[in-house]
Request: fold
Amino acid sequence: MFTRPKRLTTSIDMAPLIDVVFLLLIFFMLTSSFTAPSLQIKLPTANSRPDSTPEVILVAVDAQGSITLQGAPIQLSQFESKLSTLSQGKSDSKIHFRGDREMNYGLFVELMDRARQIGIVQFNLVHDTKK
Reply:
């Protein structure tokens, strides 16, 4: 009878290769985070500060639909005019929206839409953390 010759199986042990790659990864992570900037420069000084922090406007709505803007109660019809005076035409103003859990969702969407019409596009929803 015929007997087949056994094939030699060739395989590469991957464990040393994985160890080397892992050590290289750790090395590059550590050296890249602790290197000092290569170019040391001295920046010029100025008396005025740039206005880089955007204006934060607080809008709060309770469960009954009462609206407060920066802590002062307002009517829905006054919202756009008061908001445009607070934002002063700056598009980088942010609105922090505090809405009651039981409030009308349609009112929230309407307030966001009116703020977008003025030119404000950054909204943050303020919430409490669970304990």
Observations:
- The two ends are 79 Å apart (CA to CA).
- The chain has three helices and five strands.
- The chain has a mean pLDDT of 80.
- The helical segments are 15-33, 79-87, 105-118.
